[in-house]
Each structure stands twice: as C-alpha cells, then as structure tokens.
Design a protein that fits this description.
Two copies of one chain form a homodimer. Chain A has 306 residues and is of the alpha+beta class. The first copy, chain A, has nine helices and 13 strands. In chain A, helix 2 (53-75) runs parallel beside helix 3 (94-111), helix 2 packs parallel to helix 5 and helix 7 (224-232) packs across helix 8. The longest helix of chain A has 23 residues, at 53-75. Chains A and B meet through helix 1, strand 2, strand 3, helix 2 and strand 4 of A and helix 1, strand 2, strand 3, helix 2 and strand 4 of B. Strand 2 of chain A pairs antiparallel with strand 3 (37-46) of chain B.
Chain lengths: 306, 306
C-alpha cells in the first residue's frame, strides 16, 4: 500500500516554491527566505485518545492533526511555512484512510500557504496515529511567548469557549491570521492558545510571567455548544464550567498593556471577536474578581497531562 | 505521567546555543545560523514493525529512532541541527520507557551536536511508536541527491552489508561525518543511504539518474553477520544474498566520477572503509558484471514499501 500511496501523494501534493526539493529523496530541502530562524512544534494525535476514528472519519482526523499544529504556531505569532506528516495506519483500509486524511489536511495547508515537506507512513495492527511537525518563521513583529505578561496588562481572548467536544475540536480555524495581525499592529506582552482549558492555559501564562490573573465570570464568552452541554447533562456542570475547563477551543489568550487593549477592543481588527475577560495582577495565582471587586481564589481546571 | 516526564526531560536536556527558545512554550525557536535553507526528514518507528521492544528495550529503540533520521541527513550530506521527538507510550511503564528512550538517543544527539527542539508524548493502550523529525542544513559543498549519477561514474559504498537484523540495525553509527567530509573534499554526483537493501537502494539511484548500475559480486563487502546468518539458516540464502537484500545497513552508496573515486579509494579519508562495487552504465536497470565482463540482469531486492 505504501508505494501506491506515495504515488498518489506525489500527484496530489501541490508544488510549493518554498520546497527547493520536495518529498521523494532521503529528505526535503526547504527555503526559509530571508530569515535564518525557525519555529518548530510537533503534535501527535492518537485514535481513541485525541479523536475517535469510527465517529469522525479520517478526513476530520487529518484536519485536526494539522490544525492543532497551526494553532501552536499562532500561539507564537509565527508564520506557517511547512509541515511533515507521519501516520501509523491500521492494516484494514490503510490506503483509503491515508488518502482521506490528506484530503482533510491539504485544503487547510493551502489556506495557510503551507508546504508539505515530507512524511512517513507505516501500516500495522494498531490504531491510527498522526504526528505532524510544523515549521514556521518568526516575523519582524517578534514572537509571542507565555512569559512576558505584567501586572496591569489586560487579558484578551479571541472567540468563545467550552463544549468543543461537540464538534469544534475537529473543525476549528487556527488563529494564525489574528495572531500575526495583532502582533504586527499592537503591543502584546504574552500569549498562548487554549488547548488544555481556558483557566488552565491562562494560569500557565500567569505562572511563567511571574504574576497572577484575575478574571470576571460574566465577561467569559461562552459558546452555544457549552450551553448545550450544560443543558443536556446531569453532571451539574454549568456552561461557564465548560467554558473554563473543557479545552481544545484553540482560541488565543493574550496579555496586552491597557492602551493597546483599549485600541484592539475598539478596532476589533480580526475575523474573530476579541473580548476582555480580566487583568493580570501582582498576586500570583488564578483569581475570580467578584461583582464587588474582591478577589476569590480560583482552581485552574482543564486537561492535565498526567 | 506526562508532567513528571516533562519535568525530568527539562532537567535532563542539555542547553543548546542553537535553541533560542527551548521546549516548554507553544513551540521552540531554532537559529539556523547563516543559512536560510534547511533539510527536513521524518521517520516513524513502530514496535513489532521496526523493532521489538520486549527484545531490544526502549533505550535501543530510542537510539535507532534518532539514528535512522541522522542517516537520512547523511544521505543528503546535510549537517544535523535539531530533532523533535514524538512518542506514543504503552500505559504500563510509560515513564520508565520514555526516560530510557531518551537515555538511548541523547548521547547520539550529543555526538552530532544536535539540539532536541521539542516533542510530544501521549500514553495509550497501544504499542510504542517513536516519530523523530530531524532538521539539518545544507553546506557550501552542496547536497547529495539520488539523481545525478552518470554513466561511467564509480559506485562506492561505505562499510559492510547484510545481517543487520542480528544487531547492527539497533546500534549503527550514522555516516554523517563521512558524507560531509566526502562531499566537501571530492566531486560526488549522487548518493543515498541503504535502508531498504543495497541492490534496491542502488537501483533507486540508477532509476532517478536515468541510467543503470552494474556491480561485481566479488567486490561487495559482506559483513560477518551476513555470513553468520547464511551459515545458521536453512533458507538457502547465501551471505551475498543477505548483503544485497537485507537492508537497514545504513551505509552510504555514492556515485563518483572516476578521478574522484580513484582519489577516495586511495585516500580512504573516513572512519569507515570505502569500497568500489561497480560502475554506473548507460543501459538502464540493475546488472551483475560477470567474471568475463558480460552483463547479467539482476533483480533489485530488499524491503519494498507495500
């Protein structure tokens, strides 16, 4: 199956001017343009852990595998350049799965002018695994790190949160454009994307910046999916709980000094709405700012890696 | 387990000047020095397909996973810069396996001054998977492609062939130094590394160069392991059969014009012996040159990808 697949893929892959030598030799050669600095990230998605192949199908799994990596580049305000795609394919239907997976990710690659620089495929008796390495480039506007938030900075977020499991985690739009545009046009101190959970990822920025974060519950943009989840279940979790802890929203959390934040909120320059949900404060930890203004400790929740 | 592992890894990973931002944020930032061109490759190794974890242990599996990628960079005469390492870990002993795996690959990374720029780990009920992406750099001497061999060029190989399954495939030394040195100091037209099998990989060079290759059986450097395999088994395969078809030798095949070949063979400038095993010829295909000089068609054999 592998030679059939490689043959199919060579025909299917669009040529890309950045690929000085495309897939087919022992390695590929990639031109980085003027910048001799690159941003690299890798995310591995496993069937029955990060998606359920029999429910979502290989096309959605392929889309997600590339999208989560683009979201990591967005979180750094890096411009996507290239990706390498490795897959462990279940023996039954290996070729069909491999092709559908690429049909899922190639339009996304195209949207972001990303070169598919190579990959590896293997067939086995185990479940589907997709491992994507993405290579990006820093821009003149600089990168967005998790550290760098300062007390007084405003906490901004893109989009809405919660209930991603109902479908968003398979079809989200990585916030690459928003990140590049905001970093280029406004002063930003720190940023990350929300993969593990809004409250947990926010607490990471605070921690790595050596400060705290205080949010106002009534400012959190709650998705319709979070409300649906809260209504439909008997676990007692509210829509807000889902927004704070579900994760896989793949929206951005940003730390902006007050003047930049004011301008961003007024301009709303991106394809996605931007909301202020709180401020960074001196006191370390994560806090809820109650209606009266007092601070109440808040437990960061979300997907904890082990 | 993942947070324990990441904590352990951050302590264990040596600092590297090429990593402007190391693992821990959403992505890593890598300095490529003067060259804004990079060589990328990825190889995915699966338990029970590319190694047998219960036989070789995680340390050898980790070594092999990095070494095969370095061999791909060697095959391009590219200088290794960085690697990203993704692993799917079996739930039982996930942490122990992850640590041993890194203990296997880190000394090799150190040997080649390679920065570990990131990775991903996931725990599941499936077998061990290790996916390594390697990033290298072209040098002023240029790259070594599979195409480029010309009729009259000499076929040179490093090292010995066959019987890799007896242990060599888990502990080979990637021919990075040899490739860089030969490409810098001599005129080379084409090259690859032997992963699928000497005769099959040689036929790829011939095919992609639009010519043929004729080898002399009595010139093939046959490893002691190939001889042991031939002696110990009843499958009728000779040591030469093993040398031609076993694969995973991870030695280099090079196409050198006669004058460069003569100098290389005389100088023997590398840590590993270099042998002439034949010549590229006009007539497409793979051939054996018999003692009388006549050409006999030869079936390329080795590991065929499906």
């Amino acid at each position: 199956m592998e030679s059939d697949f490689i043959h199919w893929l060579r025909e299917r892959l669009p040529k890309h001017p950045r690929l000085l030598l495309g897939p087919g030799d022992d390695a590929a050669i990639l031109s980085l343009g003027a910048q001799a600095e690159c941003v690299v990230t890798v995310d591995m998605l496993m069937d029955r852990v990060d998606f359920h192949l029999h429910q979502c199908g290989p096309q959605s799994a392929g889309y997600k595998a590339l999208a989560v990596n683009l979201s990591d580049l967005a979180a750094m305000a890096a411009r996507p350049l290239a990706a390498l795609v490795s897959v462990c394919l279940p023996r039954s239907d290996a070729l069909e799965i491999a092709q559908a997976l690429y049909e899922g990710l190639l339009p996304l690659a195209d949207d972001f002018d990303l070169a598919i620089a190579g990959g590896d495929t293997g067939v086995w008796d185990g479940p589907l695994v997709i491992d994507v390495t993405a290579i990006g480039q820093t821009t003149d506007a600089g990168t967005l790190l998790r550290c760098g938030a300062r007390p007084g900075d405003v906490i901004l977020v893109t989009g809405q949160f919660g209930g991603s499991i109902l479908g968003h985690h398979l079809q989200f739009h990585p916030r690459v454009q928003a990140a590049l545009q905001l970093k280029a046009d406004y002063d930003l101190h720190a940023g990350t994307d929300v993969s593990d959970g809004l409250s947990l990822d926010l607490s990471h920025i605070a921690e790595e910046s050596g400060c705290g974060a205080a949010i106002a519950f009534d400012k959190i943009p709650i998705s319709a999916a979070a409300r649906r989840l809260a209504k439909g279940s008997s676990d007692g979790l509210t829509a807000l709980d889902h927004a704070l802890a579900d994760g896989e929203d793949f929206e951005l959390i940003l730390a902006a000094p007050p003047e930049a934040a004011r301008r961003i909120l007024k301009d709303q320059p991106c394809e996605v709405p931007i909301t202020q949900i709180g401020t960074f404060i001196k006191e370390p930890g994560l806090w809820r700012r109650a209606a009266g203004g007092q601070l109440v400790p808040l437990e960061p929740r979300g997907y904890r890696h082990g």
